[in-house]
Design goal:
mainly alpha, Farnesyl Diphosphate Synthase, 13 helices
Length: 301
Amino acid sequence: MPDARSSTARLAGWFGVARVPFLALPLALVANGAAAQAWAGTFSWPRTLLALAGLVAMHVAVNALNEASDFESGIDLVTQRTPFSGGSGAIPGRLIGTRAARRLGWTALLVGVLVGVWFVARDGLALVPVLVVGLLLVTGYSTGFARLGLGEVAAGLGLGLLPVLGTAIAQGAPASDAAWAAAFPAFFLTFDLLLLNEFPDEAADRAGRRRNLVLMLGRPHAARLYLVAALAVPAAILFGVGLGAMPRSCLLGLVPSILLAGPGRWALADPEGPVPVRALAANVLWNLGTNALLAVGFLLG
């Protein structure tokens, strides 16, 4: 008879390296891209759900592969974890091994690729550029982009701009102006999501020989860059509405920017100090809330 405690620990290990609590982000991005394309006149529930399955699989892949890489590089052994940064701790806690984590990552990647192949077989080559760049970002993030000072841009593209555009194209038509307008705020949101989470990981990332903007620019300059990218989100929404690429109801997407008060206060007053956990939480809620309310704005429009 199987050991129930062993099975529970194994399941916790799978869920840990997959970073299940963070899989709300693909849902918000798909909602944003699908709603934008629906406002432009093209929408399909089955295609939207299939796009969501593919994006969740790709997110699980990059999470699991990154956890395995961080353990092997020693980052996970010295990081100071918070609920929003520093990894899940599943591999150092021996809930799962690196080989199993990598198997999960590559299996999830295969699922994501198969979903993409289905869309290409049905609709032609329109989605191919998004799929190819996404594949490069997933497989190259931990050992490439995160060590070349490009991790934040890779995150903004792979879990921001490209999913919104990809979901729009997956509806069966070229990405509309609305989808492009929705994709740019998504880029800056995820860029900042990663950037703020890198501050608590500074010492561990330095020990693991990563190159990110916190290490390259220093904490004060990186904190100011965080603020600039944060301001780019409402600016992009206002620009999109002003151009007519978004309905006025998408101004709802400005509301979550209120949550920037906490992270902004820290960035201006104490960037050398630890980032408050409440500021990290507000950063996550700002990301999810903005994408979700943009989707609502498109539906109302």
